[in-house]
């Protein structure tokens, strides 16, 4: 049976009186889930590697926006790279902890860097003059280091408690918490995810973009319409991808307080979690499109790179063809007589 993120939320002690329901039919290692994981992996890998390559090779890091974009791509790439690991059975404790740690670090850092990007845009538009020094390359690096440290701290408990449980020759990567603090660590995990994704990042994003919209509504910039559409897309994509997942995690927390222990509710939550996970993980594929490819500077750099590659490829083919023709014309033809 393949691993699934939803395995972390099976509160069997709360639903022992009813038949356990693992979720949708494809949630337990079927071909459909494996294909989805690999599809998200390929899209996330392609998009984020392209962003990193163009940023480091052609744009270079000049300000906080560039640093934020670089780190967001690294975070999304980390999350994408963990997907093939979850699509197969963990072979040992090391692989179990590796995929748990990579996923957790990518989850927390990704949400935090999206929020930092929103704050950077807010400062650039709402406080354009006053925030020029705060948006420097130096402060961007400091903020990025702080986010990685916070994300690492928040991911550590799940990494430590990750355990390979084998039942009926079926390995499962699940957290194994101490019996005397079982309830505490379950609540800590859920509360950490909800705090980052639902109670901190989302309100900050909404505040920043509402302020940006207020400023843009007063301006006479011809590009105002495009900016408003982009803001709408950013907020909507974040809400669609992460809010369902965080709401389900919150409802799972209520189960810990014996508030939703009915069998039908448990079945519905377990079934919904699998769908919510796939939607949330798709965010790592969408981020490069929203934050990089839509940006004018990045699109111009990518266009130059693409044109240069096609030009080089065309020139190489022409040179190869000319060389071949010369060699052919200079080669003596043997007579059959």
TrEMBL record:
Membrane topology of the entry: Multi-pass membrane protein
Gene3D superfamilies with a match to the protein in the record: Rhodopsin 7-helix transmembrane proteins
Keyword Cell cycle on entry: no
Occurrences of domain G-protein coupled receptors family 1 profile (ranges): 47-291
SUPFAM superfamilies per the UniProt record, alphabetical: Family A G protein-coupled receptor-like
Transmembrane regions listed in the UniProt entry: 35-56, 68-87, 107-129, 141-161, 196-216, 228-249, 269-294
Record's subcellular location: Cell membrane
GO cellular component: external side of plasma membrane
GO molecular function, one term: C-C chemokine receptor activity
Statement: the UniProt record of this protein carries the keyword Cell membrane: yes
Main localization, broad class: membrane
Entry keyword set: Cell membrane, G-protein coupled receptor, Membrane, Receptor, Transducer, Transmembrane, Transmembrane helix
GO biological process: calcium-mediated signaling; cell chemotaxis; immune response; positive regulation of cytosolic calcium ion concentration
Stated family: Belongs to the G-protein coupled receptor 1 family.
Name of this chain's protein: G-protein coupled receptors family 1 profile domain-containing protein
Origin species: Pleuronectes platessa
Biological classification of the source: Eukaryota, Metazoa, Chordata, Craniata, Vertebrata
């Amino acid at each position: 049976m393949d691993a699934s993120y939803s395995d972390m939320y099976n509160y069997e002690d709360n639903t022992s009186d009813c038949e356990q329901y693992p979720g949708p039919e494809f949630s337990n290692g079927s071909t459909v889930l494996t294909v989805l994981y690999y599809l998200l992996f390929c899209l996330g890998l392609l998009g984020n590697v392209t962003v990193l390559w163009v940023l480091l090779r052609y744009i270079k890091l000049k300000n906080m926006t560039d640093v934020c974009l670089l780190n967001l791509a690294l975070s999304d790439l980390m999350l994408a790279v963990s997907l093939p690991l979850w699509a197969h059975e963990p072979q040992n404790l090391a692989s179990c902890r590796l995929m748990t740690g990579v996923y957790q670090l990518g989850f927390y850092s990704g949400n935090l860097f999206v929020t930092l990007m929103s704050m950077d845009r807010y400062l650039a538009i709402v406080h354009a003059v006053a925030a020029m020094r705060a948006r420097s390359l130096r402060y961007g690096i400091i903020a990025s280091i702080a986010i990685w440290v916070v994300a690492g701290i928040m991911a550590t408990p799940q990494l430590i408690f990750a355990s390979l449980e084998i039942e009926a020759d079926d390995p499962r990567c699940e957290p194994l918490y101490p019996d005397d603090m079982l309830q505490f660590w379950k609540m800590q995990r859920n509360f950490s995810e909800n705090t980052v994704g639902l109670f901190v990042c989302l309100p900050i994003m909404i505040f920043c973009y509402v302020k940006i919209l207020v400023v843009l509504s007063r301006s006479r910039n011809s590009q105002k319409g495009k900016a408003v559409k982009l803001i709408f897309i950013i907020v909507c994509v974040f809400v669609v991808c992460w809010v369902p997942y965080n709401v389900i995690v919150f409802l799972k927390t209520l189960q810990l307080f014996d508030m939703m222990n009915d069998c039908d509710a448990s079945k519905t939550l377990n079934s919904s979690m699998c769908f919510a996970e796939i939607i949330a993980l798709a965010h790592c594929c969408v981020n490069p499109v929203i934050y990089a490819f839509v940006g004018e500077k990045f699109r111009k750099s990518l266009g130059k790179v693409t044109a240069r590659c096609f030009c080089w490829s065309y020139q190489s083919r022409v040179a190869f063809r000319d060389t071949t023709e010369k060699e052919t014309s200079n080669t003596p033809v043997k007579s059959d007589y």
